[in-house]
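Thread: "does anyone have the structure for this chain?"

Original post by V.I.:
We have the sequence but no experimental structure in hand. Need at least a predicted one for the grant figures.
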Amino acid sequence: MKKPTIIILALASFLLLSCSGEKTEVENSESVPSSSDHLATVFLSEAPGDAITVVEARSAAVPGESLIVAGKIAGVMNPFTEGYASLVLADESLQTCDLIPGDECPTPWDACCVAPEELKAQRITIQVPGENGLPVAESLKGVNGLAEMDALLVTGTVNENSTGENLILDLNGIYQK
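Reply from O.Q.:
Generated one for you, tokens below.
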């Protein structure tokens, strides 16, 4: 047989097998938790308590310390990491484009009118760590309705890899204001 014929037969076999309606053991199992199940558990129904600002957190955070931080999802063009459970939380005082009278910016959360150094000083990274310590492999965007510009209170522990330049908070809970 010629190579194209073999490829066509292989594809046809694959399509027939994939449409057979039989489910694998993993698909039938209801005991295997999905990432979405884990992400849904981080949302809080009540405010966690008194919060500090993002700017305060950046200046005083120590790795291993538990914090409650208030902020908004903003500070960069894409505040949600595609494929990973992390987001950028900006200080509530950050001058996003929606706060500038007459500004018609389609992405007000990027705060494009703020100087880059000032912008860096007003944001932190929030991540939902998985069992391996890395962020869960699923985006937070849209989970429980999360979107750019949402105001949040987050509880978490300062990640051991945090620095003065890059504060990372391992998320325990999110309260949507």
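V.I.: this helps a lot. Residues 34-176 form a domain with the OB fold (Dihydrolipoamide Acetyltransferase, E2P) fold (CATH 2.40.50.200).
O.Q.: and DSSP finds five helices and six strands in the chain.
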